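#onboarding

Welcome to the new folks! Below is a worked example of what a typical request in this channel looks like: someone posts a single protein sequence, and someone else replies with the predicted structure as tokens. Don't worry about understanding the tokens yet, we'll cover that in week two.

Example request:
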Amino acid sequence: MADIADAAGVSRQTLYKEFGSRDEFAQALVIHEGERFLDAVDAAVREHLDNPRAAVGAALETFLRTAGEDPLVRILLSDDGTGGLLPFVTTQGMPVVQWATARLTATIEDGWPQAPPRKARLLAEALVRLAISHVTAPGDSPAATAAQAGELLGPFIDEALGVA
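Example response:
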């Protein structure tokens, strides 16, 4: 916290007054950075409103590609879990998952207003958890992962978003 306060040009006391604790600061940082990722995801979805499967694939690929190129995410992933930010998207990640799910649910409901809210939220949460899993333990390329997710989730996407 001392290093962060120095870099921000404020006292540690100011930082603690604003965020409460180191954990609350870390969580706020993860969500702040997540906003950038979800802005890109939202744009990818909106480019494919005529094809929900393509929208979900493009959104997931965009998220994974952007995360893979982000220096902060690289630092996060190099953490051994003992003092960095990794726990805030894994073992202590519920606030981040809930926040990202709500944001993605809003994107889905806006793009496909005919989708039942429960199914929009279910799809959003599944995609958020899938994205976090693949960012923290990558397997295939972002494009291959998105294609596989589209294949797996395609029938649900069609039914949930009213294109079946």
